[in-house]
Design a protein that fits this description.
The chain is of the alpha/beta class and 289 residues long. It is built from 11 helices and 9 strands.
């Protein structure tokens, strides 16, 4: 028989293990791990701190904590991450949704805010990964049509899972297509294209934090020699599916915004602008065709 522990004692044990492993936010991560193992909400976790945890919960929480202490990203350990207030299922092989990407999604929401009375607005989430951007927009604008596109089978499967989980099947569809090639026939035209492509220069992959370098998919990170390969391919090819005065939004890496903006201007985009993330980095580039 294992040691009997309250939820609070289990939480404190995990905090110690995470601290020893060099994890920074031990309070936050220990709470999420215990909550996930116990299948409790944050409120239920706080409410039940003095109760005894079942042995199976203790075993599961300990196993999850060991994975995190070994360096695996917390999102993969929990198999869930939040994006724009929505729960996203995540798995190894698909990029983890990031707070930086919420800058792109929030800008899209602002741009679409004046379009709510229209019934034929169409949105394309290119390189959709987990589907977080497109699903957030589909949930916010149920009257708009959202198409999510990727060429990774894992990403497509995960996006479909998240479409179901967030109950946006009525207005969100997941389609296989390669962003580096011409758009598929019969895809239709769009008022807005949002895209978070791979943008890390190949030579810099090895310098990334080990939690990214060793666990997240290289194909979702590697943007070619200078990190700009996807922008060079996408801008001229996919602008063809934009409607008149349609808008294209990109996430980009540090120091890339001016070049991406120039690439868009050369292809006829106007009113190009950049938007900063919470750290002050120019994270999003937008343009109107």
């Amino acid at each position: 028989m294992g040691t009997i522990k309250t939820y609070n004692e289990l939480y404190l044990d995990l905090r110690r293990q995470l601290k020893a492993a060099g994890v920074e936010d031990i309070n936050f991560e220990a709470r999420l791990i215990v909550s996930a193992a116990a299948q409790k909400s944050k409120e239920e976790f706080t409410r039940d701190l003095k109760l005894y945890a079942p042995e199976e919960t203790v075993r599961k929480a300990t196993a999850l904590c060991e994975r995190r202490a070994a360096g695996e990203p917390l999102a993969y350990v929990l198999q869930e991450w939040e994006f724009m207030g929505l729960p996203m299922h995540v798995e190894p092989g698909v990029l983890i949704p990031r707070m930086d990407t919420e800058v792109l999604a929030e800008l899209a929401v602002r741009l679409l805010g004046g379009e709510e009375i229209k019934n034929d607005v169409r949105i394309l989430d290119l390189c959709c990964g987990s589907g977080c951007i497109g699903i957030a927009l589909a949930a916010r604008f149920p009257q708009h049509r959202v198409i999510l596109v990727d060429n990774s089978m894992k990403a497509l499967r995960l996006s479909r899972t998240n479409v179901l989980r967030n109950k946006v099947t009525r207005n969100a569809t997941v389609i296989e297509a390669d962003a580096m090639k011409a758009p598929p026939m019969l895809l239709g035209r769009f008022d807005l294209i949002v895209c978070n492509p791979p943008y890390v220069p190949t030579a810099e992959i090895g310098t990334l934090d080990s939690s990214v370098r060793d666990y997240e998919p290289r194909e979702a990170l590697d943007g070619g020699e200078d990190g700009l390969a996807f922008y060079r391919a996408i801008i001229p090819a996919w602008k063809r599916v934009l409607r008149e005065k349609g808008c294209m939004l990109f996430e980009c890496g540090e120091g890339q915004a001016d070049t991406v903006r120039d690439l868009m201007s050369r292809e006829g985009f106007t009113n190009t602008a950049t938007y900063r993330d919470t750290a002050g980095t120019e994270r999003v580039v937008a343009g109107i065709l």
